[in-house]
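> forwarded from #structure-qc
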């Protein structure tokens, strides 16, 4: 019975993974949507704070700094991730300098956001 159970296990197929790490249009569209929302709403936050008639407080400065960090992250780092999600050849498109920039930018902007909080 054990031999039969083992032979049955060897005939089972491994389910295929539809989410290939280097290309997924669905993930790319999702990331593009999130980045666009992040960019526009952070611009809106900065604009609302700067156009208010009241004096800018220290809390407003922290909010502007956090929104600015998020805007820069969305402009400088996320396009690389989105391009990779749509299947662009990242080695050709970004080379090792782009990989280093992505790593540095992700850590830099992430640390800035954590320090501001």
């Amino acid at each position: 019975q054990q031999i039969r159970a083992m032979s049955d296990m060897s005939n089972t197929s491994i389910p295929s993974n539809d989410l290939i790490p280097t290309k997924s249009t669905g993930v790319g569209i999702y990331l593009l949507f999130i980045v666009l929302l992040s960019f526009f709403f952070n611009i809106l936050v900065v604009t609302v704070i700067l156009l208010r008639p009241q004096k800018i407080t220290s809390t407003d400065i922290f909010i502007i700094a956090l929104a600015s960090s998020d805007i820069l992250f969305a402009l400088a780092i996320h396009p690389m991730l989105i391009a990779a999600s749509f299947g662009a050849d990242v080695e050709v498109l970004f080379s090792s300098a782009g990989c280093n920039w992505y790593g540095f930018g992700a850590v830099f902007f992430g640390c800035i956001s954590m320090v501001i909080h």
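QC bot note: The two ends are 61 Å apart (CA to CA). Residues 25-51 form the longest helix (27 residues).
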